[in-house]
């Protein structure tokens, strides 16, 4: 129980740092454009394929569960790559500055690391939540 509380505190601290970096990338006086905040949508979408696949893998046979896991990993990796690609595309189009991209990328690393750590800590299995 104490280990879970420590894990929750650590995950919330890491998530708060990630969100802070994303907000700083948008709100600082030199940057001042809020388009990079669209990565928050990717933060919400990233765990959904894993959660849905976990639900389906309990209902089906092992072969179907394996395919479901692989599809979930594929969709999750596409969402994560999109979250890293959006700020780069915005900077290449001269919509945001490269300093804001650096802050948003740092925030991405913290947030996706937090999501991965959550599934690794609280899954109870060696198979990352499945």
TrEMBL record:
The keyword Membrane applies. Belongs to the OB-RGRP/VPS55 family. It is a multi-pass membrane protein. PANTHER family: LEPTIN RECEPTOR-RELATED, RH04491P. InterPro entries: Vps55/LEPROT. Keywords: Membrane, Transmembrane, Transmembrane helix. It is found in: Membrane. This is Leptin receptor gene-related protein-like isoform X1. GO terms for biological process: late endosome to vacuole transport via multivesicular body sorting pathway.
């Amino acid at each position: 129980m104490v280990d879970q509380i420590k894990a929750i505190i650590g995950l919330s601290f890491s998530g708060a740092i990630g969100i802070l970096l994303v907000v700083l990338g948008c709100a600082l006086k030199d940057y001042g454009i809020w388009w990079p905040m669209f990565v928050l949508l990717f933060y919400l979408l990233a765990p959904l394929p894993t959660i849905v696949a976990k639900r389906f893998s309990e209902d089906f046979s092992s072969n179907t569960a394996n395919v479901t896991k692989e599809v979930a990993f594929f969709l999750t990796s596409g969402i994560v790559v999109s979250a890293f690609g959006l700020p780069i595309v915005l900077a290449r189009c001269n919509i945001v500055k490269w300093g804001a991209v650096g802050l948003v990328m740092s925030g991405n690393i913290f947030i996706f690391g937090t999501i991965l750590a959550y599934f690794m800590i609280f899954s109870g299995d060696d198979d990352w939540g499945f």
